[in-house]
């Protein structure tokens, strides 16, 4: 089982996790920029964090045979602090980089005016840089937050296929599906989704435009939930090809739209190229393919 | 008076590694920075995906993306004063990912014909040596490390041993190795031995270089 975890915060995880993830089949991941638990109070604190996402964490993952990508954004929670709002001005530097495969996490936390302003601005940046957007949906009043999210996406000019709306559940999945956006599901030990409810959603609506992630971070979470969802899919009668589609080909297709993936040529003997990815290359690999601007 | 930044690879070797489309895009970004050196900050980050990446055929020690980026810097170097070039390199390094930072270090290593004290990127080398990213540590100990003072240079050599960067990456080992470095490396060896760990072969290589050097006061 080859796995691409499309949402995991490795900065908060240990090398034991990297080892266990590799053993379970994880060969690539996306680490979205997010809130670190302790609120930041300055722009410098953000830029050091972004530098780590395109620097140290990428190096650390490579030591364990995992291709590390990230998304960059001002997260919804900290968009409410005027001391942090100026981080919007430094985002373009990072959005130009290899391995930065989306703008995110953007979206709503408490549905404030400030959050909406930052969200709209960052959807504009996604259009400007030709990047997908990863949208976080709120823990509280998720249904209303998801509805407003989809209105803003529709107004942004960003194609629905360039947007993943994340942390969905049984209550919010259908409106995102109908909007044509990608659907992200975070499989957690206690909250959000679990693997069996995930399987039930896949059985009901199919595998199309679905991303399954562990969203593991500094809270109680499990970086192997992607693999466990794959096992639950197999136990429920899905084929290995179905699992490969959900856990590998779907995230490669979605993030490949950025043209910024840094994947090895092949993983466990399987070609990793994607019809949407113009630049699937990997540092240290022998391929010398060029791509678009 | 401008300085020269030596390319990492011959123009023809880079060209041969690119397909036709990538070759055209390479020429386009070369023209872009040659016409307007201030475009370096925009072109440099995107240049790997614009052209290509990976080992340069026939050159085990050179990556295509590094060669392309150093070439861009060399074009800028011909057109701006050394101080302006260093300012530009500091900006690119500050906001660079690890690949971009490494390419900046390679560009510093390629500086030729600089007068004493001119274009001193010591601050960038020290930043790279504070990381544990072996690709940055190795690049920081290249030819530009002749600007490092003796203490920083010895610590750099020790860091190479500690992090597994081959000391063949260290420029000027034979000339700068001294008794103080030998003592540092011997203490490192004793620590490894006391812990029952292997001593990397490069430890002996550094000690040999120190022994061959003239005794210093």
Automatic annotation (TrEMBL), chain A:
<keyword id="KW-0479">Metal-binding</keyword>
<dbReference type="InterPro" id="IPR001130">
    <property type="entry name" value="TatD-like"/>
</dbReference>
<dbReference type="GO" id="GO:0046872">
    <property type="term" value="F:metal ion binding"/>
</dbReference>
<dbReference type="InterPro" id="IPR012022">
    <property type="entry name" value="UCP005295"/>
</dbReference>
<comment type="similarity">
    <text>Belongs to the metallo-dependent hydrolases superfamily.</text>
</comment>
<keyword id="KW-0378">Hydrolase</keyword>
<protein>
    <recommendedName>
        <fullName>Hydrolase TatD</fullName>
    </recommendedName>
</protein>
<dbReference type="GO" id="GO:0016788">
    <property type="term" value="F:hydrolase activity, acting on ester bonds"/>
</dbReference>
<dbReference type="InterPro" id="IPR032466">
    <property type="entry name" value="Metal_Hydrolase"/>
</dbReference>
<dbReference type="Pfam" id="PF01026">
    <property type="entry name" value="TatD_DNase"/>
</dbReference>
<feature type="region of interest" description="Disordered">
    <location>
        <begin position="266"/>
        <end position="293"/>
    </location>
</feature>
Automatic annotation (TrEMBL), chain B:
<protein>
    <recommendedName>
        <fullName>Sugar phosphate isomerase</fullName>
    </recommendedName>
</protein>
<dbReference type="InterPro" id="IPR047715">
    <property type="entry name" value="EboA_dom"/>
</dbReference>
């Amino acid at each position: 089982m080859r796995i691409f975890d499309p949402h995991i915060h490795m900065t908060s995880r240990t090398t034991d996790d990297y080892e266990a993830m590799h053993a379970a089949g994880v060969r690539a991941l996306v680490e979205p920029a997010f809130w670190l638990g302790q609120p930041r109070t300055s722009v410098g604190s953000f830029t050091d964090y972004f530098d780590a996402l395109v620097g140290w964490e990428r190096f650390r993952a490579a030591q364990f045979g995992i291709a590390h990508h990230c998304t960059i954004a001002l997260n919804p929670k900290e968009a409410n602090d005027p001391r942090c709002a100026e981080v919007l001005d430094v985002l373009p530097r990072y959005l130009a980089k290899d391995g930065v495969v989306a703008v995110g996490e953007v979206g709503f936390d408490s549905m404030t005016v400030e959050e909406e302003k930052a969200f709209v601005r960052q959807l504009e940046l996604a259009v400007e840089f030709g990047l997908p957007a990863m949208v976080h949906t709120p823990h509280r009043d998720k249904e209303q937050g998801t509805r407003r999210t989809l209105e803003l996406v529709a107004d942004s000019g960003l194609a629905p296929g360039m947007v993943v709306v994340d942390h969905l559940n049984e209550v919010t999945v259908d409106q995102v599906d109908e909007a044509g956006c990608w659907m992200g599901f975070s499989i957690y030990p206690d909250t959000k989704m679990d693997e069996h409810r995930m399987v039930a959603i896949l059985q009901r609506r199919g595998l199309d435009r679905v991303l399954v992630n562990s969203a593991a971070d500094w809270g109680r979470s499990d970086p192997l939930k992607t693999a466990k969802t794959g096992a639950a899919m197999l136990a429920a009668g899905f084929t290995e090809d179905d699992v490969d589609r959900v856990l590998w080909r779907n995230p490669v297709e979605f993030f490949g739209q950025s043209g910024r993936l840094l994947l090895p040529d092949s993983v466990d003997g399987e070609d990793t190229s994607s019809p949407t990815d113009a630049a699937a290359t990997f540092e240290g690999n022998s391929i010398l393919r060029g791509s678009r601007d | 008076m401008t300085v020269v930044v030596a390319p990492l690879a011959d123009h023809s070797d880079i060209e041969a590694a690119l397909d036709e489309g990538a070759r055209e895009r390479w020429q386009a970004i070369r023209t872009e920075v040659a016409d307007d050196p201030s475009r370096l900050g925009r072109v440099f980050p995107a240049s790997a995906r614009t052209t290509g990446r990976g080992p340069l055929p026939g050159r085990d020690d050179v990556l295509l993306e590094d060669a392309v980026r150093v070439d861009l810097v060399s074009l800028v170097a011909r057109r701006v004063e050394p101080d302006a070039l260093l300012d530009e390199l500091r900006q690119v390094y500050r906001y660079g990912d690890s690949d971009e930072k490494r390419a900046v270090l390679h560009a510093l290593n390629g500086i030729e014909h600089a007068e004493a004290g001119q274009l001193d990127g010591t601050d960038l080398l020290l930043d790279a040596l504070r990381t544990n990213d072996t690709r940055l540590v190795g690049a920081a100990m290249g030819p530009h490390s002749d600007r490092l003072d003796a203490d920083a240079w010895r610590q750099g050599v020790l860091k190479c041993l500690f992090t597994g960067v081959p000391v063949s990456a260290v420029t000027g080992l034979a000339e700068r190795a001294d008794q103080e470095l030998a003592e540092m490396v011997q203490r490192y060896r004793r620590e490894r031995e006391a812990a029952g760990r292997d001593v990397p072969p490069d430890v002996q290589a550094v000690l040999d270089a120190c022994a061959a050097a003239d005794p210093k006061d």
